[in-house]
Amino acid sequence: MHECKTTSLNTPGVCAATAEGCALCDIVPQAPWGEKSSLLLLPQDHDAETVVENVLTAAQIAFTKHHTGAVLITSWPETIGAVLSDGLSNATKESVSASVINHEVSDKTLLRAAARCRPLSSFLERMQYEWVRPVLTNNQLFSMLHPIVSTKDGSVFAYEMLLRARKPGTSEVIGAWPIIEACEKLHLQHQLDQRARECAIRSAAPYRNSSQRFFINFLPNTIYDPEVCLRTTMQAADEYDVNLNLLVFEIVETERIADMAHLKRVLDYYRSHGVCTAVDDMGAGHTSIEYLRELKPDFVKIDRDIVVNAVDDHIVRAELHKVVQIAKNLGIQVIMEGLETQEQVGVCLDAGADYVQGFYFARPANPPQQVENVHCLMQYNKAA
User: Fold this and answer.
1) Predicted confidence band of residue 34 (pLDDT cuts 50, 70, 90)
2) What is the DSSP code (8-state) at residue 330?
3) Torsion over CA of 361, 364, 365 and 371, rounded to 10 degrees?
4) For range 166-172, the mean pLDDT
5) CA–CA dist 229, 196 (Å, integer)
6) How confident is the model at residue 256 (pLDDT cuts 50, 70, 90)?
7) Do 147 and 135 touch, CB atoms closer than 8 A?
8) How far is Cα 336 from Cα 310, in angstroms, rounded to an integer?
9) CATH code, residues 38-127
10) pLDDT band per the 50, 70, 90 thresholds, residue 85
11) What b/e readout covers 2-40, taking b as 16+ CB neighbours within 10 angstroms?
């Protein structure tokens, strides 16, 4: 669990709370290498040394060889990661250690770099996630809006703000989970958390005069001091003139909640400032139901797999009805997501869903798509 404390920026992994927000989360650290860096490769045996030299030579990447047998690349071409990843077998990668030298190459800096060496395989794995650093630095995040539809009248009740990014140097659009995975690998989750929230609010701004709410996802392991967290959110909401009462913070990956008591305090703090809360991907098991009782969110989203399986399985359907009833008894409104067929919609309506979401009605887009197929909701209500 990530906690903000009043501290210096030299304290790793701890937020530096200031009057304006979290100084550490505001900063995306530079990559541990750059154009002027050198890469030190330490093969463990002669065979690995020969293979590395052959791969670098074939790729026309200049290198020097130290008298100890270390291979020292004297430049940092953009292709180095791909060359080593594609040209070396997994066995060779495990037989080579790697480290970066960011200063003038000398016996002293070589010795220090050698002491920091780690397997080339893990070094290359980290390199493949480095695309996310300029995404955060250059504000290349954006949101897609996915409608959440009322089962009463087919109107758009809210939009879920789905995080996306454009990969630097390409037109490729990256989904939320690859972004989150890359940030976790590089320990940039908290920088992402702050920027994703601001991105969602900025994307909601053109629709702020409507009555729709905006669901914003966040992961439990990025939760920190609510005063600091909400302060940056309030600043963004003020800047883009989005009322906090329209925001719904949606907890995803509930199985990763490490400190339930802390999370409850955070949600209570948000609610005290007019922000609603939701829990995503709720299952039908005992643990999920206990989460509902503990957290008491304003909204709950039911796991799509339950809805899909409930179409043909009467036991799952009974479990679905049970979860919905428990939620309603707790005063929690129910959203069923991931709907792609009319049969799935019917199951949700029979169970008593308040809202529905999925490709059957619209796909995520910015600006948002026109909602379709609401006639099935009207027909159900008339029949009821």
Assistant:
1) confident
2) T
3) 10
4) 83
5) 12
6) low
7) no
8) 12
9) 3.30.70
10) very high
11) bebeeeeeeeeebbbbeeebbbbbbebeeeebeeebbbb
Q: Which pLDDT does position 286 carry in this prediction? A: 53
* 232: confidence class by pLDDT, cuts 50, 70, 90: confident
**Phi, psi values for residue 4, rounded to 5°:** -90, 135
pLDDT at residue 10, rounded to an integer = 35
The letter for the amino acid at 264 is: K
- Contact between 155 and 123 under an 8 Å Cβ cutoff? The reply is no
3-state secondary structure of 92: helix
Lowest mean pLDDT among 38-42, 89-93, 225-229: 225-229
Q: Is the pLDDT of residue 19 over 60?
A: no
Concatenated DSSP letters for 186-230?
TT-HHHHHHHHHHHHHHHHGGGTTSS-EEEEEE-GGG---HHHHH
Q: DSSP string spanning 292-328? A: HHHH--SEEEE-HHHHHHHTT-HHHHHHHHHHHHHHH
Would you state the pLDDT for residue 384?
62
Q: How many helices (H) does the chain have, and how many strands (E)?
A: 16, 16
* Strand spans (E) along the chain: 4-5, 15-16, 38-43, 63-65, 71-73, 96-101, 118-119, 141-150, 156-166, 173-174, 213-218, 247-251, 276-282, 299-302, 333-336, 355-356
User: What token pair was written down for 297?
Assistant: 């969110």
Q: 3-class DSSP state for residue 152?
A: coil
Give the separation between CA 349 and CA 336, rounded to whole angstroms: 9
Q: What's the rounded Cα separation, in Å, for the pair 247 and 374?
A: 24
Smallest CA-to-CA distance from 186 within 19, 30, 8 is with: 30
Question: Rounded to whole angstroms, how far apart are CA atoms 184 and 341?
Answer: 35
Domain 132-383: CATH architecture, name and number where available: Alpha-Beta Barrel (3.20)
Task: Kindly report, residue by residue over 354-383, the tens digit of the pLDDT.
Answer: 999 999 999 999 999 999 999 988 887 766
Domain ranges of the chain: 38-127, 132-383
Do domains 38-127 and 132-383 share one topology? The answer is no
Tokens linked to 258 = 């490490």
The reported pTM is 0.84
CA distance 272 to 380: 37
